């Protein structure tokens, strides 16, 4: 079994990172280098989290073996030997041979640092560039990152000059390396505590609120109102950009030197807009015959960048709107089925995705009713209580992990109790649950936060390349300080425990933080205590209230703006529900018509078609006459009957008409 656990976890973590990236990214449309770089960043960060418990158990075994094999005369060596235990030092099932873990951590750590500080920032600028060639994109990326790279080089150069001039400093290469690692970890720890303070409160609270059906439905209505505003803004922005593309396409003809750039821009436009511009294109006109002002290549690069952004945003809002509609319809179905006497879950609409026969065989309507209406709320409540307990333990340990006599950190107490009996399974499980919970609190916040429209991780393959690369940068910067914080909570870090024992392989790669005593004895110990203040601020939703005051509408139960948006969202969902019901009714009528008259001979079919055309013409005439008599005050039942006679899209006289198809709008806006 030597090294088998390490190999299994390496394979498992790879498929886990691949699954998450497939959920958020789009393998078919996004560049392969973007997918590979993001996958590598996510994979390395998840790998550190999963492998670190094995490093802890291996270190405890090495300490035990060192204590047993050492004599009291040999206690003056590099490490202080522990008192031999009454229990024999059993080799753990996941033991990793000596020499493997230091090399493994060195490769993983420095690869992640190269990604986060050099490669991923460059690829961000490259992916968002509007250049038409690889050389142009590289040039743009270098210019945009010149200030970014120059700032770090300036700081590092000033530090080297100060060390060289000052005779009191005699730093070696290993110490310089440690200082660089400490600087990177300090920046990561600063951001880590902010994200951790939010996740420790928000994750248990979100699961507790998940048991409240009314709360979830109201929040879905609120999201629908906000998303409709964003969707309308994205459509308007896309139309404006497409209008500029149309003007550029009409001005730059087929024999213009920049026509290739225009064709590249047109390929990024939606298909319907490409067809529409192609019909209005006149390529038989020479650009030299008329003295027109043509756009420059720089302006085309800017337009290309705007087209990529607007198309991605428009597609994302369309997909998110459909997903939100399905969620709203399902929550409304759950609310209706809670009072069902038959105890069978009934859906208002059939699922648009093909159903898995195996899942439907076990997940019957009766099982679905018991799970959604009875078991799921209680399951979420129990899970919320367990997560809240973990959060309290983490907050207590973050405030007391610096105390070694007595040991107040609960995680350190658990590990030390298991270390006395050398129960490696318990040690690995305790370490894994601890670091896994910390990672969930931090990483879930990274997935939830949204910086306007520049950084946003959207599921269902709707995340752009810039956001994917930015998430990889955050993961690579947050994971090393997260692991050091975990080792401090469990007193496996000699800097915290103040014991000259054998360190873990991960700590040995980081180097001794004694070189910078004000960081090792000050910032690393006392700064994590701020997590208490951040947890209190998150519990009382201070950040949400501040954003609401600044004009960014947030879901707050005691806000008048929230109530208005909930009512607006409820009306939008009701309108979409009526629209889908009428579409299904029309499909059912057509299906019944085919089943009833589909087997007749050709003459009968022609006669029926001719009769239907006459009836349709007569119905349209009567409908038009009737529609002219109706106003907004007509009854909804009579209005629905007239709309069904037309067999067309329903007309809603209670709200302003919304045109979802950009092609039906007037092009000369």
TrEMBL record:
Residues 598-617, 635-644 have a biased composition (Basic and acidic residues). Keywords: Coiled coil, Membrane, Transmembrane, Transmembrane helix. PANTHER family: G-PROTEIN COUPLED RECEPTOR-ASSOCIATED PROTEIN LMBRD2. It is found in: Membrane. Belongs to the LIMR family. The lineage of its organism: Eukaryota, Metazoa, Chordata, Craniata, Vertebrata. Residues 598-669 are annotated as: Disordered. GO terms for cellular component: membrane. This is LMBR1 domain-containing protein 2. Residues 658-669 have a biased composition (Acidic residues). Residues 618-634 have a biased composition (Polar residues). It holds the Pfam family LMBR1. It is a multi-pass membrane protein. Residues 224-251 form a coiled coil. The chain crosses the membrane at residues 6-21, 33-52, 103-126, 146-165, 177-201, 378-396, 425-446, 466-489, 523-542. GO terms for biological process: adrenergic receptor signaling pathway. It comes from the Eukaryota.
């Amino acid at each position: 079994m030597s090294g088998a656990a390490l190999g299994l976890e390496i394979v498992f973590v790879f498929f886990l990172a691949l699954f998450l990236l497939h959920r958020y990214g789009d393998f078919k449309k996004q560049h392969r280098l973007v997918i590979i770089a993001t996958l590598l960043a996510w994979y390395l960060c998840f790998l550190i989290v999963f492998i670190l418990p094995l490093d802890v158990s291996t270190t405890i075994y090495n300490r035990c073996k060192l204590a047993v094999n050492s004599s009291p005369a040999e206690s003056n060596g590099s490490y202080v030997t522990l008192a031999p235990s009454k229990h024999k030092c059993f080799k753990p099932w996941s033991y990793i041979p000596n020499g493997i873990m230091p090399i493994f951590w060195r490769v993983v750590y420095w690869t992640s640092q190269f990604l986060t500080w050099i490669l991923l920032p460059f690829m961000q600028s490259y992916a968002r560039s509007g250049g038409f060639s690889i050389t142009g994109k590289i040039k743009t990326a270098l210019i945009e990152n010149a200030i970014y790279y120059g700032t770090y080089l300036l700081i590092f150069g000033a530090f080297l000059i100060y060390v060289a001039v000052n005779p009191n400093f005699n730093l070696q290469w290993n110490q310089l390396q440690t200082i660089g690692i400490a600087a990177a970890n300090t920046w990561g720890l600063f951001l880590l505590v902010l994200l951790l303070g939010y996740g420790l409160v928000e994750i248990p609270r979100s699961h507790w609120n998940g048991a409240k059906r009314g709360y979830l439905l109201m929040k879905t209505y609120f999201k629908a109102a906000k998303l409709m505003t964003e969707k309308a803004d994205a459509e308007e922005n896309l139309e404006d950009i497409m209008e500029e593309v149309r003007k550029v396409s009409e001005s730059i003809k087929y024999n213009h030197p920049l026509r290739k750039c225009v064709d590249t821009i047109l390929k990024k436009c939606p298909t319907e807009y490409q067809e529409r511009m192609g019909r209005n294109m006149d390529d038989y006109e020479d650009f030299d015959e008329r003295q027109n002002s043509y756009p420059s290549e720089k302006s085309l690069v800017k337009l290309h960048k705007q087209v990529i952004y607007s198309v991605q945003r428009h597609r994302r809002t369309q997909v998110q709107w459909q997903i939100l509609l399905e969620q709203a319809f399902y929550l409304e179905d759950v609310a209706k089925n809670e009072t069902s006497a038959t105890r069978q879950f009934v859906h208002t609409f059939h699922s648009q995705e093909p159903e898995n026969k195996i899942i439907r065989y076990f997940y019957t309507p009766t099982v679905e009713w018991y799970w959604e209406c009875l078991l799921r709320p209680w399951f979420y409540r129990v899970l919320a209580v367990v997560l809240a307990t973990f959060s309290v333990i983490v907050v207590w340990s973050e405030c007391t992990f610096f105390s070694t006599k007595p040991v107040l950190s609960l995680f350190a107490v658990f590990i030390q109790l298991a270390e006395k009996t050398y129960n490696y399974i318990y040690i690995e499980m305790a370490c894994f649950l601890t670091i896994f919970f910390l990672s969930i609190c931090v990483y879930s916040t990274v997935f939830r936060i949204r910086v306007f429209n520049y950084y946003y991780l959207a599921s269902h393959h709707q995340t752009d390349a810039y956001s994917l690369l930015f998430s990889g940068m955050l993961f690579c910067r947050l994971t090393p300080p997260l692991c050091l914080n975990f080792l401090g909570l469990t007193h496996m870090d000699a800097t915290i425990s103040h014991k000259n024992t054998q360190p873990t392989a991960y700590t040995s790669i980081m180097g001794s933080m004694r070189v910078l005593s004000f960081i090792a004895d000050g910032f690393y110990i006392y700064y994590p205590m701020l997590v208490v203040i951040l947890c209190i601020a998150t519990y009382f939703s201070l950040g949400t209230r501040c954003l609401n005051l600044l004009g960014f509408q947030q879901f707050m139960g005691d806000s008048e703006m929230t109530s208005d948006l909930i009512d607006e969202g409820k009306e939008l969902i009701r309108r979409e529900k009526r629209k889908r019901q009428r579409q299904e009714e029309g499909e059912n009528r057509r299906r019944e018509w085919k089943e009833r008259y589909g087997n007749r001979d050709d003459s009968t079919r022609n006669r029926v078609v001719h009769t239907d055309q006459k009836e349709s013409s007569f119905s349209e005439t009567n409908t038009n006459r009737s529609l002219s008599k109706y106003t907004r005050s007509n009854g909804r039942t009579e209005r629905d009957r007239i709309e069904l006679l037309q067999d067309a899209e329903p007309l809603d006289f209670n709200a302003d008409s919304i045109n979802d198809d950009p092609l039906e709008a007037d092009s000369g806006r």
